[in-house]
Ribosome biogenesis protein NOP53
Amino acid sequence: MGKKKNQTVRAKRIKAAAEALEEQQAERIVSKTVESKPNQELFVIDTDAASNHALSFIPKEDRTSRKKKFDKQHVSDVSKVKRLIDTLGKDGVEKLAKEGAAAATKRRTRMRRTAGTARTNFDLWGGGGDAASGGGNNGKKKRNILPVMTGQSSAAGTAPMTLLATDDAANAITNDPQEQIAHNIDKDAIHPSKVQLSNKVVKIRTLTKSLSKPTVPIELAHGGQSYNPDENQHQDVIGEALSIELKREEALAYRKTPISNGLSKETLAIMVHSSDEEDSDSDDDSDDEEKNNDSFQPRLKSKVINRENKKTRVQRNKQKRTREEHASIQQRKKQKTFLHEVNEAKLRAKEIKQEERLQKERAEYLKRVQEEKRKEPLGLNFLHKLSDVDPIHVPSLPVALTSELGRKEKDDDDDENETVPTATTSLRKVRPKGSLLTDRSQSMISRNMVNPKRGANKFIVQGKKRTMKGGKGREYLLI
């Protein structure tokens, strides 16, 4: 058996050596054929384009699709050019092509511009003409900007302005018709109604006008605030001024009142009574301790068992049956109630409709109140409204006191004495009341044109306040 195995291994080695020898002979023959050929046959110069070489790797289907796409694009371009020629004509197409070429050249020169060769196409000082000759705007006609009042009320009650570009705007606002004709100016072109605005601005102004409240820039003074007022009107204004001052006094008194005024009499009485009882208890305890020290007698504690409320087994069973019967009665009652609820669906629906009707009426009432409040003009009775919000800092209502008016009594022989509302002083001796600046500022605040001054309120910051340290970019930071 061992002899046959060695023979097979030997045969395999002989076969592998023969195959290697054949490969070497084949390589030697191929190399001899290449070495015998001249260089012209071995080396070839590629004279074709690289695209042709790349096309050889593209499948035939892709090449056909590309060709069809190119032909289709070519046909569409030709049709577009024909359409332009029909609409603009040959001269128009040539002009358009020249403009496109000029724009492309301008873009290329802008990208390749070197430093120091740039030239401005406008005049910094607003002169006319070309930039090379000291002018600007590339020879275009100068257009001025004119601010025009639009007449539309804004949220704050002011009339905003818009900027309108017009020719010779400075001369357009003149009222001389001959000058307008000389400058060929249309006066209606700058009229607020003829101003061309964007849709966005028009929508915003329409919404603002619909939501804006009516305002009263100047509130007419009451008749009682005159230097020679009617007696009844003067007393009415005095009452209004007095109500503002009373609110101020109440607010000041409330601010000066401390949070705690100490303990009440009832609390003090309870505390004194409790302290007396504690003293008496402490005295009794001290006496007991002295007695115990004299004669120590230990006392045994015995647990008292109350047998009066103990129930027998019959009573406990009876209570158990009673509880079970009560539970069954409650269960039957729930079932009966459920059946009644199913039968009373119409009644429940009626109650729901009634509740919905009440809610609808309330919503309509609130909407009506809000609409009335929105229609209420701003700027009326602003002192009374401010007295409800800030009674301490509200200005006083400007009105002269009765003693300051200089009234005198007129005696008649026939009639009884009566007070005549006539002033003995002249207008030069009238003492002014109030301040025009304060009145205007408060009126603007009530019309939401100016933000009110923030009071000196103390802001409580919870937590640790972070401090910023000086560093890069914060060299001048004040901490």
